[in-house]
UniProtKB/TrEMBL annotation:
It comes from Laceyella putida. This is Rhodanese-like domain-containing protein. Residues 18-105 form the Rhodanese domain. Signal peptide: none annotated. PROSITE patterns: RHODANESE_1, RHODANESE_3.
Amino acid sequence: MGKYQDIEASQLSQAPEEVKQYVCVDVRTDEEYQEGHIPGAIHIPHDQMETRHTELTPYKGQKILLICRSGRRSVFAANVLADQGFANLYNLKGGMLEWTGPQTKE
């Protein structure tokens, strides 16, 4: 595995129990996040990841799933976290555009 591993959004969204094994981190803008996100997702916009990555330190040993709209900004966030020593990083390939699983606006 390189800095992160891709997981297909279309496949993972069909397995809600599997999603629970990840710490979900949504890296979209505030507006995008409020329109709907995976339940329980931590919200840290990708352009704030370099300054806010310490908020994820308690989860450093766990699997972290990075989520954005299409899968590009989450790659940026994965690289930032990898540079900070995070190892178990996963990119939701296809992002929320291809996610068909549960969403919440809370």
